Amino acid sequence: MAKWHKVFLAAAIGAAIVSTGGYAVAQADVIKARKAGFQMNKDAMAAIKKAVDAGGPATAVVAPAEAIAAWAAKIPAHFPKGSDQGDTKAKADIWAKWSDFEKAAKANEEAAVKLVAAAKAGDMDAVKAGFGAVGASCGGCHKPFRND
Ligand code: HEC
Fold first, then answer.
1. For the segment 26-68, what is each residue's pLDDT rounded down to a tens digit?
2. Are 112 and 72 within 8 A, CB to CB?
3. To test ligand 1's pocket by mutation, which of 103, 142, 147 has the most ligand atoms within 8 angstroms of CB?
4. Cis ω on the peptide bond leading into residue 76 (within 30° of 0)?
5. How far is the CA of 125 from the centre of ligand 1 (A)?
6. For the CA of 104, the nearest atom of ligand 1
7. Which of 59, 82, 125, 144 has its CA 20 to 30 A from that of 52?
8. How far is the C-alpha of 131 from the C-alpha of 111, rounded, in Å?
9. Does residue 11 have its Cβ closer than 6 Å to ligand 1?
């Protein structure tokens, strides 16, 4: 569980540097911080998949699903204007369609919150469905807003 918290901390520190650092440095740091957040998502999804494939335990899904939900709430703040420049796959459409981007983050958060509830209830059928819904919400943002 501590692992997820550490990644958040790293992402939060990255965001803090952005507000104080120079412009170019700031962009590089925020890109680095959000990539760390998304890598954490990947690890969290792998942990959840492992539990789903094994038929449980549902308790193993709680922390990674919470981590996804918490990160989802922070995604928009990690995409300041102009951060499509540099080592990033962010599409310019993020800023052209900002409210859609925020909605995609919100959908991801809500799907993860549902998954947390299913995991806490120990309902593996709901966990399985919830895992699918979270995965779909990742794709729901990547498709319009991330370059391949
Ligand atoms: C609201 C939009 C959004 C949501 C939701 C989202 N992503 Fe992403 N993701 C992105 C964008 C944009 C990038 C590209 C970031 C960059 O290169 O600066 C990205 C990048 C990534 C990366 C590559 C990170 C790297 O090191 O380059 C992974 C892995 C990833 N996402 C996994 C996920 C998973 C798993 C989920 C769902 C649990 C998810 N993402 C949900 C928008 C999103």
1. 788 999 999 999 999 999 999 999 999 999 999 999 999 999 9
2. yes
3. 142
4. no
5. 26
6. 1
7. 144
8. 8
9. no
